[in-house]
Amino acid sequence: MLGAAAWIFALPVALAQSGVPSVTGNARVDKLLSQMTLAEKLTLIHDAREDPRSYQGQAGYVGGVRRLGIPGLRFADGPPGVLTRHPSQAETATMGLAATFDVRLAQQNGVVIGREARALGIDVSLQPYINIDRDLAFRRAYNTYGEDPLLTSLIGAAVLRGIQSQNVMAVAKHFIAYDSAATDVWVDEQALHEIYMAPFEAAVRAGVASVMCSYNHINGPYACGNSATLRQLRDELGFKGFVTSDWGATHSAQFMNDGLDIEMIDGPDSSGYQEPAFLGAEPAALLAPAADSNGESMGDIYGGSIPEESAGPSASDIDLGAKVEPETINEALKTGSVSEATVTRAAGHVLYEMERFGFLDGRSKHVVTAHATEANARIIGRTGEEAAVLLKNEGGALPLKSADLDSVVLIGPTAEQVDAIGINGERSMGLTERQVGPLAALKMISGHPNIRFAVDDDMTGSPIPAAALSHEGNPGLERTGPAGRHIDAALNFTLKGGNALQPNTTATWNGTLTVATSGSYWLYLQALGTDASLFIDGQRVGVTGTFQGDVHGDILQPNQDNVVPTTDGLDNVRHAVDLSAGAHSIKVQISPDSSNAPVQLRLNWYTPQQRATDHEAAIAAASHAKVAVVFVWARRLPAFALAGEQDKLIEEVCAVNPNTIVVLNTSQPVALPWQNRVKAILQMWWPGDEGGWATAKLLSGRTSPAGRLPMTWATRLQDYPATDPRYPERSAEGLDHKTTYSEGVNVGYRWFDHEDIEPLFAFGHGLSYTSFAYTALRIERAGDGGLDVSFQIRNTGKVDADEVPQIYLGTPGEAPEGAQFPKRSLVAFDRIHLQAGESRQVTLHVALRQLQYWSTASGSWVLAAGKRTLSVGASSRDLRLQQSID
């Protein structure tokens, strides 16, 4: 029997002797390639329309070759979770997972994603998202694992290992430097390797099946047609899988010459627009029906704007940077600018992974089967608990004492309903039946059923009364559709009310809405089992965020369009409309989604008078309570701020109650102008379906918080390197539309150290219900050239809890010329559990790569010589032990 080395050497010889050209070095794959026609190879390198009878509402599909037993591949979005037309469990948001600093738990989260994908018949999971949280104003930054390349590398690699352990391919995205809204991005080679490429190197080492190239240009060329960076991916990092374009990121068939393997595209949208294809792609989605009579496009995966949020700048789709000559694959093959050998190489990369995952042996699965709901829920719940970061805890205000619970009030809509996902984007939207709110969970866990609640901001509202609705001077709205003409006194059709409409109902309601006083009325279009639009005075003011044929799942789900669903589990499209006193025309349209479910539709409102009443009630409740716990939230807009008047709410509660605690549901830092006035701040992120239980356990002291910040929490947005007005070239707008990452390797906390800026809360910060002491530092050289760092940690308090020791490495005494070094960088970490009073020796390994820097001069990794300081502590600014190393 041949040894491994002999087999690798003999394989090309055996292939050559068999007459089969060696393309991938895998005998089976190369034989298949030799049997395939050009048309069949092309089938494997682009998005295709799946048979409508089996399509699951996923993002993409690569057609197989039935003649040769090659199955198709289904691609579904995250992160996190799995987004198809079928509901899927909602995991803790990526930033929360990063905050656990728990690599083992990260892998279990990957297992959850892989199990959900497998249950839903998905082959390829479009995650982990391993870009860097460089620019808080970037609308997709919340999807990251924070600002540090090592933390991102280890968490991302663990997630993909978990996904792939379930026989599902993972896709690491987005390669590369997709950390800004800019399209023309320039990064020096040292920063490119040490910061932005590092997580992809970790993904390749973990065996990732695919890497997704990004939309932006990088140092000139498009990322998906960048021979320099894609060659680095293959040659430097050793990537063996296939390169997938982001949806619409291909601009020429010639991108294949530079390393692209698969083209994916969006569309058509509900207005009929279809992105161009260059490798023959068709979107996996069903053909969208003809646009409705208003002629406007429908659907917004980010939920549109809601009353509490500023509209913000519109996302720019202007492509700035070097252009290419658009050429389709048919044209390119005809002119010879792309060869069949290049097509064969790309198809080979896809087949190589299909063979590796057993898909050529019948292991692919395209049917929907039972979910491992309870097993997944245990991991999601634990992650929500581990992710929580106790930012402040003056006087031990948390945990809540049993004696306090009969005189505590929880304030805010996300106290009653768990803010499970924050914002839809492209993630799983969760199972509403599992989403127990913090209020109910705290009552059950504590045994105190009389905990009070004040909504302040009612996101469900109440049905618009029949007295306010009329048509042609008569009561009610006129409904027209295939079923004829009807008059409905109000729009309130629900399963709970026993009057839901028939599945696949198409209808339009017309009439008049009359209001007694002028003001800003918050109108709530609430629906399920349908797509819906709302018009006031001829203007469309609300639309559900899906449409039939949508590649992000064409069935409306309850968490699609708002911070939380309605309290009875409907999707909730909420918009503020200024209405003058008197009559206004109103129209509501619905058209089928593809769920075949009963149609639920309700038109609710939240009047100015009711908003004022609810706010006054919240302040009054706070004034009569011993402790007030205010729950606040943020999505993407405005950047670095809580939405609406939540800051004002906290200030007013503090004014009447000196024992105010704030619970945050955000995925990025926000300004905290009231932080000196509150007793405690608990960051719960967007904790997933089980997050209500996690929040209650932490508030009640059943669990001690031990999450750590995966990013620096600044006092001002201007303190971050990408949003510092002194450096306009770093912004998304750049200089002359060219964005340069001139901060180099000094991203995140490294920038704060470089500039001596005091953060509000440092990278790695997080408090506990106990305390820990660090002693006895010892450093030894490891066999791989790295370091083994040992020290003692003792739990000096009275509560069993986790601790997250972190190791930071300082700059060399004499930095090599032409290289950049941060004052300190994270080089190792772990999460450990210690019982009260327990002491333990901890040994962490610092890999050789963490001691090296990328030398632009030599084009290689080099060990920096000279003395450096190695520090151990509980955050980047809380360093307890240190030692000089040579």
Descriptive tags:
19 helices, 886 residues, single chain, six-stranded mixed sheet
Number of helices: 19
Q: Count the strands? A: 39
Helix content: 10-25%
Mean pLDDT: 94
Structural class: alpha/beta
Shape: globular
> How widely separated are the two ends?
47 Å
| Unreliable residue runs | 1-14, 291-297
Strand content: 15-25%
Radius of gyration, CA atoms, in whole angstroms: 28 Å
Taking the sheet with the most strands, its summary is:
8 strands, antiparallel
Quaternary state of this entry equals single chain
Structure description:
The protein has 19 helices and 39 strands. It is α/β, with parallel strands linked by helices. The strands form 9 sheets. Strands 13, 14, 15, 16, 18, 20, 21 and 23 form an 8-stranded antiparallel β-sheet that branches. β15 and β16 (484-488) form a beta hairpin.
Structure described in brief:
The chain has 886 residues and is an alpha/beta fold. It is built from 19 helices and 39 strands.
Q: How does the SSE layout of this entry go?
A:
Layout: H1 4-18, H2 27-35, H3 38-43, E1 60-62, E2 73-77, H4 94-99, H5 103-119, E3 124-126, H6 149-164, E4 169-175, E5 184-186, H7 189-196, H8 198-205, E6 210-213, E7 217-218, H9 227-236, E8 242-245, H10 255-258, H11 329-335, H12 340-356, H13 373-387, E9 389-393, E10 408-411, H14 413-416, H15 438-446, E11 452-454, E12 462-463, E13 469-471, E14 474-475, E15 477-481, E16 484-488, E17 492-493, E18 507-515, E19 519-528, E20 531-536, E21 539-543, E22 571-579, E23 582-591, E24 600-606, H16 608-623, E25 627-633, H17 646-656, E26 660-665, E27 680-683, H18 691-700, E28 739-740, H19 749-755, E29 772-781, E30 787-795, E31 801-803, E32 806-810, E33 824-829, E34 832-834, E35 839-846, E36 852-855, E37 860-863, E38 868-875, E39 878-885
Parallel strand pairs: 2-3, 3-4, 4-6, 5-7, 5-28, 6-8, 10-11, 10-25, 25-26, 26-27
Antiparallel strand pairs: 1-2, 9-27, 12-24, 13-14, 13-18, 15-16, 15-18, 17-24, 18-23, 19-22, 19-24, 20-21, 20-23, 29-30, 30-35, 31-34, 32-33, 32-38, 36-37, 38-39
